[in-house]
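Hi F.,

I've been meaning to write this up properly since the lab meeting, where we talked about keeping a consistent format for the predictions we share between groups. The idea is simple: the sequence comes first, exactly as it goes in, then the structure tokens exactly as they come out, then a line or two of notes. No screenshots and no reformatting. I'm using this chain as the first example so we have something concrete to point to.
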Amino acid sequence: MSADDQKQQILAAGETPIFSYNQTDFVKDRVAVEVQFGKYAFVAYDLFVKHLAFFVSDQIDVGIEILPMKSLQSQMSSGVPYFEGEFYNVIRQGRGVPAVPLVMVGIEP
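Output, unedited:
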């Protein structure tokens, strides 16, 4: 449903719509790219909300998440995610979760 249609449905239900949106670092040729060198909580948001939202709305065919490898993360400030840990988190969720094709890329020094 488009944002305008959603707004109309919310208003028709007597509720107040709240404007929000998802933004990604880069989208080209139906590929979304997120570079995540911030806090680890944002990786889960990227993988399970952002990429999925763009995929479900038929804006992308695949999401790419770029993360530091543990060897790089250990040289960074605290709270930064690392590829090996986030890869394990995705794998342990099981097949089909998240329900969007993903490529995870690890960067090392």
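Notes:
The beta strands are 26-28, 31-35, 62-68, 102-107.
The chain has a mean pLDDT of 88.

If this format works for you, I'll send the rest the same way.

G.
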